[in-house]
């Protein structure tokens, strides 16, 4: 790979981290009226911070503290995913209840959020140094592009789907709407 291609991948990775930092920040913000907001604000706030750090200084992924923080958060999120999956299984699958649609279950949405966190932070771990610049392999970049697009498309579909807005729990209704300011 020539230097210009490496630079393009490097810059694309920085832009990807910027978009994911925005997404994780928004995901943290919309938790403000959730009953367990503190847990979810931290769960999304830490990846937002890690993404901003990689945006500003991509070589930070070589830093031991950054790697330990990322690994620790990955382990916590994976444990959270296991807990949520077992809860979904026990409440809908094993109990003989009819399984609801995926996005109708708050636990499933929580699982999807943690899954995005885990996949993105894993992609951040897969970076390599090329010509002194920290950049991910090409496959990781293409996976990252798909991963960046996915949450924004899902969020837009939830926002514009009027049927879904009716079945949301009370604490979720209006969480994506910006507050109106009156003068």
How is this fold's topology laid out?
Layout: H1 3-29, H2 37-56, H3 64-93, H4 106-125, E1 128-130, E2 133-135, H5 138-160, H6 162-167
What features would you describe in this structure?
By secondary structure, this protein is mainly alpha-helical. It has one domain (3-167). The protein has six helices and two strands. It has helices at 3-29, 37-56, 64-93, 106-125, 138-160, 162-167; strands at residues 128-130, 133-135. It has a two-stranded antiparallel sheet. Helix 1 (3-29) packs antiparallel against helix 2, helix 1 runs parallel beside helix 5 (138-160) and helix 2 packs antiparallel against helix 3 (64-93). The longest helix is centred in the middle third of the chain and has 30 residues, at 64-93. The termini are far apart. The model has no long low-confidence stretch (mean pLDDT 78). It comes from Strongylocentrotus purpuratus (Purple sea urchin).
